[in-house]
Specification:
- With about 250 residues, the protein is of the alpha/beta class.
- It has a single domain, classed as Aldolase class I (TIM Barrel, Alpha-Beta Barrel).
- About 45% of the residues lie in helices and about 15% in strands.
- It has twelve helices and eight strands.
- Strand 2, helix 2 and strand 3 form a beta-alpha-beta unit.
- The structure holds 2-phosphoglycolic acid.
- 2-phosphoglycolic acid binds next to strand 8.
Length: about 250
C-alpha cells in the first residue's frame, strides 16, 4: 500500500508572521491525521519559521526549488544541504512555473533531483503537458520524454527515494482540474515508464501526486483513483481550513 502524500506549494505567498499564524490554525486541524504524509513548502526565507512552527507535529517542511551545487559563487541560489540544515525534508523540483519563467529543462531537473537526493531530501519531481500538447494528442509522448530525460537516468536506489507530481500545465492555477479519469490515465502512463525502466516493484512503490486546481470539492474524486497517491496543492493550500479539508479528504 502506498501512503498518500498531501503537499502544499505556497509559491510566492506569505511572510514569516503569516507562516507562523497559518501553522497555529492548521496544526490542530490535522493533529489526528495518520492516513497520509503532510508537507508544506514555503518560500526559502520562511523555512526556519515553518520548521519552528511545525516542530513536533506530523507536518514536514519542504522548499520549492534548489540549486545543484552544494555551495559556491552562485548569487541568489540555495543548495540542498542548506535546505536540509534549515530543517527541510522535501523539495519541489521542475515545477512548471520554473520551467516556464526560469528556463528549467529536463536536464536541470535531473541535476537538481540528484542534488536533492545527495542532501537527503525527498524531491517532488514535477512533470506535465501544456494545453497545446494535450490538444494535439501528444500528452503520453511529452510525459514519456520528461520521464526519460529528467528521471530515467537516476539509479534504481535514487529512483526509490523520489516522488513524482503529475501537473498538467493547463490545470495549474486555472480552476480547470483534470477529471479523475484524465489524471489517472496520465499517472498510468508515468507508472508504465517507471515499470519499463526500473521494474515492477519500483513502479508499484512509486508515489505519483496529482497537481492542478485541487480543492476541497474535488480532492475526494481524485483520491478515489487507485493510481493517484496524493496531491500537490497551490491556491487551495494557503488557507488552513481549506488545506486541512484536503488533507482530511
Ligand atoms: P494550483 O497549483 O493548485 O493553484 O493549481 C498547483 C501547483 O502549482 O502545484
Amino acid at each position: 500500500m502506498r501512503k498518500p502524500v498531501m503537499a502544499g506549494n505556497w509559491k510566492m505567498y506569505k511572510t514569516a508572521a503569516e507562516t507562523t499564524s497559518f501553522f497555529e490554525k492548521f496544526l490542530p486541524l490535522v493533529r489526528d491525521c495518520s492516513h497520509c504524509e503532510i508537507v508544506i513548502c514555503p518560500v526559502f526565507v520562511n523555512l526556519p519559521a515553518a520548521v519552528e512552527a511545525a516542530r513536533g507535529s506530523n507536518v514536514r517542511i519542504g522548499a520549492q526549488d534548489l540549486f545543484w551545487e552544494t555551495e559556491g559563487a552562485y548569487t541568489g541560489e540555495v543548495s540542498g544541504p542548506m535546505i536540509a540544515a534549515a530543517g527541510g525534508s522535501h523539495v519541489i523540483v521542475g515545477h512548471s512555473e520554473r520551467r516556464q519563467y526560469f528556463g528549467e529543462t529536463d536536464e536541470s531537473v535531473l541535476k537538481k533531483t540528484r542534488a536533492a537526493l545527495n542532501a537527503g531530501l525527498t524531491p517532488i519531481v514535477c512533470v506535465g503537458e501544456t494545453l497545446e500538447q494535450r490538444e494535439s494528442g501528444r500528452t503520453a509522448g511529452v510525459l514519456a520524454a520528461q520521464f526519460d530525460k529528467g528521471i530515467g537516468p537516476l539509479s534504481p536506489e535514487e529512483f526509490g527515494r523520489i516522488l513524482i507530481a503529475y501537473e498538467p500545465v493547463w490545470a495549474i492555477g486555472t480552476g480547470r482540474t483534470a477529471s479523475p479519469e484524465i489524471a489517472a490515465e496520465a499517472h498510468r502512463v508515468l507508472r508504465e515508464q517507471a515499470r519499463a525502466r526500473f521494474g515492477e516493484e519500483a513502479a508499484e512503490n512509486l508515489r505519483i501526486l496529482y497537481g492542478g486546481s485541487v480543492k476541497p470539492e474535488n480532492v475526494k474524486g481524485l483520491m478515489a483513483q487507485p493510481q493517484i497517491d496524493g496531491a500537490l496543492v497551490g491556491g487551495a493550500c494557503l488557507k488552513p481550513e481549506s488545506f486541512a479539508s484536503i488533507v482530511n479528504f
